[in-house]
Amino acid sequence: MLGAAGRMGRAIREAAEAMQVPLTGGVDRDGAVFGEFADVAALAVGTEVLIDFSTPDALARHLDVARVDGGAIVIGTTGLTPEHQRLIDVAAKDVAVLQAANTSLGVNLLAALVQQAAARLGSDWDIEVLEMHHRHKADAPSGTALLLGQAAADGRGIELAPVQHDRTGKREEGAIGFASLRGGSVAGDHLVVLASEGERIELGHRAESRAIFARGALKAAQWLHGKPAGRYSMADVLGL
Ligand code: NAD
């Protein structure tokens, strides 16, 4: 477990106990959190699957140790840039990598529904993605909001970046908008609104605790174990 002292690190440790998944060790920025390991490189030796819920700055190092030691890696960290995505693509040539901005069954099913809705509705239906998270969250819009926006763009058969609406200026037809709220202890609320003249469809998901992400991450790790090098997603794990 990489980022073991964090909120998700703690949730994954709890879920692993309940699911009887053997977590051999956890490291954070300053070294071992549990297990006898000096650092991430020492932890990776002999580890079958690494689970990373830390920070984008640590990603390159975590991919390197996964490649060197040949184990697989699940990446749950969000706030990743196109450069991080490129590093993941390169690493996936040598090692099995599963990157997921959201590891819950519900959100991944929601993404499939959003893709389907966007595919069937014309660009006169405006698509807006709203999200709310706890006050400590570092990145915005959330990785999950971007995942849902990407699903809508996939449904329309277009790239997300050119139509991503940043909330300043007038809304263009075909734009996919994002709005973020931060406060309290919200584990993660997402709502995708498809709005046309005189009617609206709202597709949403509310995470009641981090346990859903933790269980999903462990399921992903179990599924990824023994897979050949390549890039995988939660849709593969969940058979969506
Ligand atoms: P957090 O800030 O509570 O925990 C992150 C931990 O990573 C901290 O303990 C920090 O010290 C540690 N860290 C920083 N640099 C490190 C390094 N170089 N090596 C090892 N550890 C390092 O955050 P969190 O709420 O636990 O979330 C962690 C990440 O997971 C965020 O990017 C968050 O958005 C994402 N997240 C993803 C999902 C999902 O389903 N994929 C769900 C929830 C959160």
Side by side, the strands of the main sheet go: 7-8-6-9-10
Arithmetic mean pLDDT: 95
Low-confidence stretches at least 5 residues in length (pLDDT < 50)? none
Classified in CATH, the superfamily of the largest domain is NAD(P)-binding Rossmann-like Domain
Number of helices: 8
Structural class from helices and strands?
Answer: alpha/beta
CATH class of the largest domain: Alpha Beta
> Which cofactors or ions or other ligands sit in this model?
nicotinamide-adenine-dinucleotide
Biggest sheet overview:
5 strands, mixed
> What is the number of strand segments?
11
Beta-strand residue fraction = 15-25%
The share of residues in helices is 25-40%
Q: What Rg do the Cα atoms give?
A: 18 Å
Shape annotation: elongated
